Amino acid sequence: MDSNKTTPLSASALQLSTSKDILGSLAAGFYALFTLLPDSSSLVVSWPWVFVWQVALLLPWLWLLRNGWIQKQFIGLGYRLDYGVILAVLGLMGSTLLASFLQQARWYSWAALCALAALYALNAWCTNPGKRLQLLKAQGGLSIAFIVVSLSLWGSQTFLPELNRLHNLQAAGLDLPYDFSVLELRNWAPIGHQNYVVGYLVLCLPLLLGLSISSKTRGRWIWGAGSVLGLVDLYTTSSRGGWLGMALVSLLGGLLLLKHSRLSLRLRWMIGVGLLTGLGGILFANNRLRSLFFTTTPLDGAGGETAFRAITNATGWAMGLAHPFFGAGPGSVPLLYQKYRPAWAGREAELLYQLHGTPAQIWAELGGVGIALSLGMLVWLGYWGIRLWKSQSVALECDRILSWSLLSGLAGYGVVSFTDYQLDIVCISGTLIVYGVSLLSLLRQYVPSNLDAHVVKTSRIVWLCWGIVGLLIAVGLWLAPIHRAWQLSSLGFNALSQKQIEPFKNYLAQAHQLALWEPYYSYQLGWNLSTATSEDQQVNQSRLSQSLEFFRHNVKASPNQESSTSSLGWIQLFSRQPSLATASFLQSTHLVPAKRGGFHSLGISLLGQGKVDLGIQAIALEIVRDPLWLTSPLWRSAQYAAVYPQVQAAVVQTYQKLLQNRSPKDPLTTYLRQVLGGVFWWQGKFTEAEAEWRSHKTGLGQVVLAIAKNNTASTEVPILRAWLEPKNRTQWIEKALLEANQALPNPQAVQAIQTSMDQSKSLDLWIRQNAPTRQYPRERAGFGVLSRHIDGPAPTDFFPVVENVAMTQFFAELLPSPSYSPDLDNALQPLREQLWGVIAPAQRKP
Q1: Over the Cα atoms of the chain, what is R_g?
Q2: What is the pLDDT at residue 610?
Q3: What is the DSSP letter of 351?
Q4: Three-state SS for 706?
Q5: Angle at 400 between CA 396 and CA 406, to 5 degrees
Q6: How far is residue 356 from each of residues 34, 91, 305, 527, 823, measured CA to CA in Å?
C-alpha cells in the first residue's frame, strides 16, 4: 500500500494493543478522581490540585503520541467532524490572539485543546462494539458512584445540620420548613455547585435508565436503583433547568417505550408512569420548583435568579457586540464583566465567573465564530442522530436503547446549557466526550458511509508527532512559571496564616513577578499589607506604601473590576492622596454604580479636597440608592456631623427631583414616596412622614408614628411589643431577634438591646440614638472562585460599615433598599452621569 494514502476504517486495522495502556488507565483514573473529588470545581484552582489537573490534561496528548509512534497511524473522527475540529481550532486561535487578556485566553484555550486531544485519543481506543459497551458501563458505574457521593456529602454536611438547626429554632418558637430557595441548602456535592450537579445528572440519568432497560442480567436492578437515586439527587438540587431537561428526556423516553417490543405493554406503562410520577414528585414536593407554576413575579423589581440571568445575558450580548467576530477571548468574562454590565442591574449579579448560559458565554468570549461552530454542531447532531435512529431496527434492542440514552441525554443537557455554562467542568466535559465517542462508534457500525473515519498511515505521522512534542514543550515552558508562582503563593499564604508577614510578602512578591498578568497576587499583597498592623509606625507606613504600589499593579492587570479600583482609591485616601482617590472612585462607580459604599467613598475623596458641594451630592446619591445608610451611627462622628444636615437636605431634594413629572400610578412613585416618608420620619418631621405613609399604607410606619405621638397602638411586631410591654421585654426581644436572624438569639445581643431600651425615654430616641451599633467590613463574596485562585484569604472591603442595629434588623422596611430595581437605577443614572461630568474635568491633568 502507498504510504501516502489513507485506508478506510476496519476493526482489524484499528485494533490497538491495550494490554499495557497505562496512559489510558491513568487518564480514566484522573477523570474519575475529578468527578468524585469534593468541591472539585474549586480545588482545580488551588495548589497542588491545579498541578494535578494540568497533568491530567496532558495525558490525552501523550496517549495520542503513543498511538502515533507505536502504531504509526492517526485515526480521524469521520463524518466531516475533523473539518469542524480544524475550524474550531482556528477560531480558538483567532480568539486567543485577539483576546483582551492574552494570558488568560491561552490558559483556557489550552484546556479546550486538551479536551479535543481526549476526544481523538478515546475515539482511537473505542474501535468496536465491545469497547463501546465497556466504556458506557464504566461511565454508568462512575455516575452511580457520583450519585452516592453526592447524596452522602449533601446529607451529612448540609441537610442534616440544617434539620438540626430548624429543630432548635422550632423548640425556641420559630417553625420554619427546609427551604430549597436558599442556594446554600441545595445539593452542591461533589462538584461544588448545584448547577454543575444538575448538568451531570441530566446527562447521566438517561444512560443509567438505558443500561437498566437493555441489561439482561442482574445488573438491571443496579442500574435501575442508580436511576431512582439519581432522581432523588436531582430533587435535592432544586433545579428548574434540570427539571425541564429531564422533562424533555421523559418525552423522548415515551417515544422509546412505544417502539420497544421486548417489554410487555404493562411494563412499558409502568416505566412511563414511573417517570412521570418521579418528575411530578420532584416538581410538587420542592418549594422552589413549585414556583415555576404557582407564583408570578414581574421582571422589574423581582430580583432573584430571573433578574440574574436577564443581567448576565444582557452583559454577554453587549460583550459579543463589542467583539462580534472572535469575541473578547476565552476566560475574559470575569475580567470584563463589569465593564459591560448594564447600569439598571443595580446590586444584582455585581460580579461573576461565568454568564450562566452557554450561548451567552460563547457569544461573549468567541463571538460569531463560536456561535457558528455551535450551531454547526447542533445541526450535525440532529442530522446524524436521526439517521442513526432510523438505521437501527427495533430488533437491535440494546444498541437502539443506548442510542436513545446518548441522544436524549445530550438533548436534556442542551436545555440545561441555556441556563448555565459548564464546559470547563472536568466531569461534564468528560461525559460529553464519552457520549461523542460512543455516538461515533454507533455511526460507524450502523451508518457506514464514505464520510466514515479513516486511518491515516503515512510518514508524515512522525512529523505530526514531533509537532505535538514541540507544542507540549512550548506549553510546558509557558506553564512552568505559572505553576511556580502558584506554589510560591501557597507557601506565602501558609506563612500568613502563622502571622509571618515578611515571608508572606516575599513569597507573594516572587509569585507576582513570575506572573505579572495575574491580578490575584498583587491584590492579595496590597490588601494584606494594608491590613497588617504593627506597633512600629514606620513599618506600617512602609507597608502602606508597598500596598499602594501593588494595588496600582492590580488595576493595571485588571482595570475593569470594581474591587481593584475602589481598593486602590481607599489606599490613596489612607495615603492622603484624595485627588487620586477621586479618580479611582470615579472608575469604580462607573463599573458598578449601585455598589454599596461606592458613591460614599467618592464623596469622602471630594470632601478631602474641600469640594463640599460635590461631596454632598455624591453621598446623597449613595443614600438615595441605599436609604438605610442615612441611619448609620457614622454620621454622629466628628468627621461627618458637620455635613450631615446638608446631606439630609440633599437627599430630600434628590427624592423630590425624582418625583417631578412622575405619574402617581408609576410603581417607582410608590417606592420613592415610601422612602421619602421614612427620611422625614428619621428627621423627626412626623407630619410630612404621616402624609407620605398614609397615602401609601405603610403599616409599620403608622404604628411607629402612633407610638411616637403617645397614641394608643396595637401591633404584633415583637420589637414594638418589647417597647410597649417593659415587664416582658426580654422575651419579646428574644422573639424579635429570632425572627430577624432565623437563629437562636445571642444573650449578649438581647442584653444590649434591653439595656438601651431601659435607658431611653421614647421609642424614637431609642431607635435613633441609643440602639446598639455594629461595625464590620463587607466581605468580597466569592473572591477566590472569581479570581480562579482559592489559596489565600477572602479580602474585605475597606469601606467602613457602621450600622444601627435597630434599623437594619427590625425597621428596615421603613427605608427599603431593593437589590434589583431597574426603574430606580435608570432614574438615578442621569444624576450619576451629571455628577461624573462635573467631577471628571477637574481630575484631568494639565
Answers
A1: 31
A2: 95
A3: S
A4: helix
A5: 160
A6: 22, 22, 10, 29, 24
Instruction: Enumerate residues 6+ apart whose C-beta is below 8 A from 160.
Output: none
The pLDDT value given to residue 542: 96
- Hey, what amino acid is at 552? R
- Please identify which residue in the block is written with the cell numbers 442508580: 226
Residue labelled with grid coordinates 469604580: 588
Show Cβ contacts of residue 400 under 8 Å, excluding neighbours closer than 6 positions: 259, 389, 392, 393, 394
Pairing between β-strand 6-8 and β-strand 454-456 as defined by DSSP bridges: antiparallel
Cβ atoms of 478 and 106 closer than 8 Å: yes
> Is residue 360 within 8 Å of 328, Cβ to Cβ?
no
pLDDT one-digit tens code per residue, 290-304 = 555 554 443 344 567
Residues near 609 by beta carbon (within 8 Å), at least 6 away in sequence: 578, 579, 582
Contacts of 725 (CB under 8 A, 6+ apart): 732
Cα separation, 411 vs 406, in Å, equals 9
Closest CA to 652 of 691, 628, 680: 680
**Contact at 8 Å (CB) between 357 and 316?**
yes
3-class SS of residue 302: coil
| Local structure of 564: helix, strand or coil | helix
Buried b (16+ CB within 10 A) or exposed e, 197-228: bbbbbbbbbbbbbbbbbbbeeeeeebbbebbb
pLDDT, tens digit (0-9, with 9 covering 90-100), for 749-779: 999 999 999 999 999 999 999 999 999 999 9
Contact assessment for residue 238 and residue 180, using Cβ atoms and an 8 Å cutoff: yes
Helix (H) or strand (E) holding 92: helix 81-97
Distance between CA 621 and CA 839 in Å, rounded?
14
Of the given ranges (346-355, 389-398, 571-580, 792-801), which has the lowest mean pLDDT? Answer: 389-398
Nearest to 203 by CA among 224, 234, 238: 234
| The residue to which cell 441489561 is assigned | 215
What is the average pLDDT across 787-811? 95
DSSP type of residue 745? P
pLDDT at site 710:
84
Q: With a cut of 80, say whether residue 844 has pLDDT above it.
A: no
Q: 291 Cβ partners below 8 Å, 6+ apart?
A: 181
74 beta partners: 456
- The gap from C-alpha 412 to its chain's centroid, in whole angstroms, comes to 21
Type and span of the H or E element at 256: helix 240-259
pLDDT on residue 783: 92
Split at pLDDT 50, 70, 90, the class of 287 is low
> Span 802-809, mean pLDDT?
96
